[in-house]
Request: fold
Amino acid sequence: MVDVLPVPRKRPLEEEMTPATSNDSIWVVIPAFNEMEVIGSVVRDLLAKQYSVVVIDDCSEDETSRIAYQNGAHVLRHIVNLGQGAALQTGIEFALSKGAEYVVTFDGDGQHSTEEISRLVAPLQKQNVEVTLGSRFLPGAAAKGIPAVRRLVLLIATSMSRLTTGLALTDTHNGLRGMRRSAAEKIALTQNRMAHASEFLAQVAHHKLRYCEVPVTISYNEYSLAKGQRLSNSFNVMWELMLGFLRL
Amino acid sequence: MTLIQCFLILFCVCFLALYFAYFRSLLRDRIAAVVLCSSAIFFVLFPDMSTPIANTLGVGRGADLVIYLAITSGAFVFILTWSKLLSLQKMQTDIVRELAIRDARKRD
Reply:
């Protein structure tokens, strides 16, 4: 007599977690504004790893669109400058319309490494996680060249976000994030400008999305620091968020 | 009637005319605009009448009552305008996004 072991039925969640066979179902969304100096190499590096790449040119005054296009990315252009939050939402919607299974947000100023994408996507594929959030401050992570003042401001912002969203995070304003399709469909950023980072976390909390942080390395260089947020803009972000909460 | 009274009444009438000419608002809002302008004209013509009303409402002087009402009305108009601005901004975002996605391009 042969014992026939019952074949374990896959639960829907496990079926959902089946890894993708290639990287083209992973869509990398890059908001870009006047990034012609670096956007070409960013796109090339990503395409070399066979990711699907969409660059959202937020009405740049330079050749960002042309360079991204010539290097093989999907290029979308906002006809007026709306802000990084709006560009991300446009890119996420476009990626979903193209059948993306995983969506990763990525900065266009060259401070993110393409190596980080597989780290962000792995928990989405293999674990019971719908959203992954890059963190510069976890063990194993690094924020190379980050100015001390910026580090301090980020720590304050993180504490505030922990209070307002209830999410236990170590870094809340990191542009590296990953989402499963199911999560990306629920995210709807309405904060067009920089307050989208906090709004994203608020929506993760609101929709009770399963999340985890992933240690990532961010390399600050002269170019990215010059392009990055001015500290004085932190007050604008807080103001936008406050207004956003009032609207909810 | 003094010169300033003429000027203020003219201002109220012009405001109402512009409101009716340019804003396709709800009947409720139109009634509110008429009531507001009528009250303003009434107090311009009979400034002393504001004091008994203020006293009834527990405010000392009529001028104080007018100031309080002006501040409250100003804040209300500000919020309404701001809300309209946000709704226009959302509309603009939706249009820009729709166009961007429609005109997406990729080199073959």
